[in-house]
Design brief:
With 334 residues, the chain is of the alpha/beta class. The protein has 11 helices and 12 strands. It has an 8-stranded mixed β-sheet with strand order 3-4-7-8-9-10-11-12, with helices on both faces. It has a two-stranded antiparallel ribbon with strand order 1-2. α4 packs parallel to α5. The longest helix has 14 residues.
């Protein structure tokens, strides 16, 4: 079979006024990629499920300590890899969300009260797993007055007490727009403050109907206002029907609000009840978008189909801080 003509799949590039390049959009879609096929994923999204290494130990420890992870609750495709490497992203405040985002596999129904012992158990897991970079995320708890901010702080403090040398990254909700809650978590001084925009503004009513794009941007801006030296981070899913130009526009918004780190990955449908995939975005386009992000001033970018917010998070944070110039394995970072 003759080699595929790359001129047919590479996106045309346009130069924006600030010098960034963006893949040109046509008809609302990328000039590349594959249409979703219910029976078979494209080759770049097929890989064996890793269950070697420390998978069983991590799985058993989480069960022993009665802890949730986003790896399990959100059906993350990297769960096998991360567990096998002895890492996990802790999901605090229970495994049930008060919102019902149409992309997310986390269950949505009235949740249980917050568990005051959970921070101690998270800290115990971090210590026993020997983690150097800890990612703590949460379900959205609109039923709690502060959105769970105090619980976040209790978890940060418990981890710091148990493993002082560990870096702590938080991935928060929007706290319903409560800036006092944002301030409380930021004042606890995690090493990275992450809040995901998830998608472009045009798709919010379909993808995140209970969220507001400007409110999420404001969360990140507020962190910069109150803790100007605290690195901020955000993430996007691709393949939901956004255009490349819309992605570039979101990047500009993030930079205008002081965000330094960015992750971009392929949206994968968790079940038939969730939003359909509009397009499987090819790896080289993720790389093109990463280059555009660096031109806009991001200090660290992870952009590849299997990238998720906390995937190789420690390596991305080190790259952002200048302590590492090497990209994480499998990530298109510049």
């Amino acid at each position: 079979m003759p080699p595929r003509d790359r001129r047919a799949i590479l996106p045309r590039m346009t130069r924006d006024t600030d010098g960034a390049h963006s893949p040109e959009a046509t008809g609302g879609h990328y000039l590349h990629g594959a249409a979703p096929n219910a029976k078979r994923l494209p080759a770049w999204l097929r890989r064996p499920i890793a269950r070697t290494g420390t998978f069983a130990e991590v799985d058993g420890l989480l069960e022993e300590l009665n802890l949730n992870t986003v790896c399990q609750s959100a059906k993350c495709p990297n769960r096998g890899e991360c567990f096998s490497e002895g890492t996990a992203t802790f999901l605090i405040m229970g495994g049930v969300c008060t919102r019902n985002c149409r992309f997310c596999a986390v269950e949505s129904h009235p949740p249980e009260p917050l568990d005051p012992d959970e921070p101690r158990r998270v800290a115990q897991a971090v210590k026993r797993m020997g983690l150097r970079h800890v990612v703590i995320t949460t379900v959205t708890r609109d039923d709690v007055a502060d959105g769970g901010a105090a619980h976040f702080v209790a978890t940060i403090r418990a981890v710091r007490a148990a493993v002082p040398q560990a870096a702590i990254e938080v991935l928060t909700s929007d706290f319903g727009g409560n800036e006092d809650s944002v301030d409380v978590v930021a004042a606890a001084r995690p090493d990275v403050f992450n809040h995901n925009l998830e998608t472009v503004p045009r798709l919010y009513s379909e993808v995140r109907p209970e969220a507001i794009y400007e409110r999420s941007l404001r969360v990140l801006q507020r962190v910069l206002e109150t803790q100007p030296d605290l690195p901020t981070k955000s993430g996007l899913m691709l393949g939901l029907g956004e255009t490349p130009d819309e992605v570039i526009s979101v990047m500009r918004d993030l930079r205008a609000h002081g965000v330094e780190m960015l992750t971009m990955g392929q949206y994968l449908r968790p079940s038939p009840a969730h939003l359909e995939v509009v397009e499987f975005v090819e790896p080289h386009v993720f790389a093109e978008l990463a280059r555009a992000a660096y031109k806009l001033g991001f200090t660290a970018v992870a952009s590849a189909p299997f990238v998720r917010s906390s995937y190789h998070a420690g390596e991305l944070a080190e790259r952002s801080s200048g302590h590492s110039s090497a990209p994480a394995d499998g990530l298109e970072t510049d």
